[in-house]
Amino acid sequence: GKQMSSYTFTIVGKQDNPLYEYVHSTKKEDAAQNQQNQFFVHAALDVVDEEMWKNGSMFLKSVDKFNDRVISAYVTASHIKLMLLHDGKSEDAVRSFFTEVHDLYVKVLLNPFCDKDAPIPSPAFDARVRAVAKKWL
């Protein structure tokens, strides 16, 4: 069957401030592991910033690797970064996931009461991201 996998998805704002995070783990990964995953994602931000200027494209394939985990990134026109730490998903799946989540995120921003630099509080957004993740990842 399809192997269950764990991944960490983060939306990071222009100031490298976390706007949203979703950790999907199969077994109860300990807090230390999650801490480490967050550290990896943050370490990769510098790489993303560099790649972004060189690359100019929104979807950056794997920007970094840690052990057997890969970090893929997607940078929006307004420099919001979508980061996914995963164990080697297909590029198409990751791209599709990012594209759909980006659409959801854009809809959140259309809300006039939305503070673009604050974490996304919406449970509806969270539920939709989870549904998209379930579909692609």
UniProtKB/TrEMBL annotation:
InterPro entries: Longin-like_dom_sf (IPR011012), Sedlin (IPR006722). One of its GO terms (biological process) is endoplasmic reticulum to Golgi vesicle-mediated transport. It holds the Pfam family Sedlin_N. GO terms for cellular component: cytoplasm. PANTHER family: TRAFFICKING PROTEIN PARTICLE COMPLEX SUBUNIT 2 (PTHR12403). This is Trafficking protein particle complex subunit. It comes from Hemiselmis andersenii (Cryptophyte alga).
